[in-house]
Amino acid sequence: MHVENHLAASLPLPAERDHLRPRIDLIVFIIDIKSKYSLKNVEASLAHVDASFFLGKVCFLVTGVGRVNNCSIEMSAIWKLRDTYCSPVLLCELESEKIQATTAQRLLRMLQICAGHHQQLNQTNF
């Protein structure tokens, strides 16, 4: 399986490159639990995502959860995003290489399912 990543600070993506852009199978919104700006940016970007993506092709990756005392975002705001957009939340601490690898494997598995590489599973199995 060939995987292409596109990192963007926010949405929408520039329209002038639409014809060059590969199919988008999964959108991962990264939220840094220590940054209110991070949450605001994700909330603003969500308005630019087609409603059909919320049927299993969007997830929220919340980083920095190992340092609860440094949180700028209440977890209730994260759970509200999950419930509003019916999208899974992955919690992780990216300072640990082992957790980085595990998180990458989980995201890759989600991508494989979203891209249709597991015929027995679909996006609603997350």
Structural key phrases:
32% helix; 3-stranded parallel sheet; alpha/beta; 126 residues; globular; 3 helices; single chain
Q: Percent of residues in helical segments? A: 25-40%
Flag low-confidence runs. none
Shape type: globular
In what range is the share of β-strand residues? 5-15%
Radius of gyration: 15 Å
Structural class: alpha/beta
What is the total tally of β strands?
A: 3
Q: Number of helix segments?
A: 3
Distance between the termini: 20 Å
Mean pLDDT: 87
Q: Strand order, biggest sheet? A: 1-2-3
Specify the biggest β-sheet.
Answer: 3 strands, parallel
Order of helices and strands: EHEHEH
Sequence-ordered SSE layout with sheet pairings:
Blueprint: E1 27-32, H1 36-46, E2 58-63, H2 75-85, E3 89-92, H3 97-114
Parallel strand pairs: 1-2, 2-3
Gist of the model:
With 126 residues, the protein is α/β, with parallel strands linked by helices. It is built from three helices and three strands.
Structure description:
With 126 residues, the protein is an alpha/beta fold. 32% of the residues lie in helices and 13% in strands. The protein has a 3-stranded parallel beta sheet with strand order 1-2-3, with helices on both faces. The chain is globular.
